[in-house]
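To fix ideas, we close by showing one paired sequence and structure record:
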Amino acid sequence: MIEEKPAKDKRRKGRETPPTLRQMREIIERAMEGGDPARVQAQKAKGKLTARERVHYLLDEDSFQELDLLAATRCDEFGLKDKHIPGDGVITGLGRIGGRDVAIFSQDFTVLGGSLGLQHAKKICKVMDLAYENRIPVIGLLDSGGARIQEGVDSLDGYAEIFYRNVKCSGVIPQISVILGPCAGGAVYSPALTDFVFMVDGSSNMFVTGPEVVKAATGETVTFEELGGGKTHSAKSGVCQFLANSEQDCFRQVKELLSFLPQNRWERPARIANPDPVRRTTPLLEAMCEVDPRKPYRVHHIVWQIADEHKFFEVQDRFAKNIVVGFIRMGGDTVGVVANNPAVKAGALDIDASNKASRFIRFLNAFNIPILTLVDVPGYWPGVTQEHGGIIRHGAKLLHAYAEATVPKVTVVLRKAYGGAYIAMSSKYLRGDFNFALPCAEIAVMGPAGAIEILHSKTIKAAKTPEEAAKLRAELTAEYKAKFASPYQTASTGSVDEVIEPSQIRHKVARALRFLREKRRPGEHENRGNIPL
């Protein structure tokens, strides 16, 4: 019997393919081709990948399980009945990235401009529901002309269904939007509701109304790129967290981001092998104690010194540069970093910085990621524009985000920490778990120089000569700094747990985070979602 099998196989190989099987293969092949060759060629000419190429480029090899390949629109108006619309303009399914399950959809611009009709929306909703029910991240690759006009209100209802699921999934599973072409009108609100938005410089656009409508309504002349390009949204509006130079670079960044995240709110991010000793000292940071308090520096240098292997994955690096946020690893575990950046606006908090940090903190809290806060803040950025723009309201978001966060919170005061901004940056009585300060830290209601002008104004005015006044100012400033702005004075009240050596920052923070690891069990915290701020 064993010897007969090869002969049987040979006979089967020689047989003609059954008509039903041949027909199925032809139908599937035609559906997988996408739009007509001319449209595909036009897509390639712009330096863009096709929708299917994008899926396979992003996912692990041979991991894609496609769903609803043969789904088709039921609309037969305006000539749609006679058109070949493979997959109704969107590819959906499940796959893996780095060995971890994800749900994915990819809009196909070569098929009716990737426009969203009812069946198109249903496919996306089905894969989002699967992601929600199976607790896996969902990734959307967007390249669409917007709502399909031929289907009327059905297409708008389709968007509403997607928006509803974006909110339902918020804070439950990570949601990532990758803009790889146009994204206009109501379509822009789905990416805005997700946790992270990626764009590609030169080929991605997002806007509620296009340049022509803007010109007709306001008389302003603006290009697509100026109105809603990647540089605009990454640096000015803050809608985009990551800007890539190419689609391939974009997908690399998506994979790196996912490596820091858990699958859902019931898990922690995966711990990875860590060759960098946790007890590694950071002697270069001793220079902090010699830096003039008024001298700017990039806080990135501090973050790189603290992080495992000096690696920092920054988020929203072009927007509100006076505050820096992103991911590092310490002892192999993911940690979220929020740090004032004295290189821009002296590290002061303003409207954009408050919004940027608040939303990032709320994301970290939703997905069980500890928060490390590095403080060097002189206060809130002054000015009429800030006050009229609502710095009070927006600044309160930062207070709210830190106060509601129940993940481990470790704070290090690097240099300045003045006034209300000191409170907002995860201070002890805003429920920071471990609060450290360097010996050079100045923690006070306001800066010593400003304080003595108020407290000793009469004494200074009574000085007989400018030289005497300057000498008096210097003496009073030093006295005030030693008595009221010293980290030792703050430590004596319990507002700081410990004044630490700069070379020990990495070890102290890592040890604190290890101690706090079981502070909160994943999934047992209240889910407040991650509302766009």
In short: Residues 1-5 have pLDDT under 50 and may be disordered.
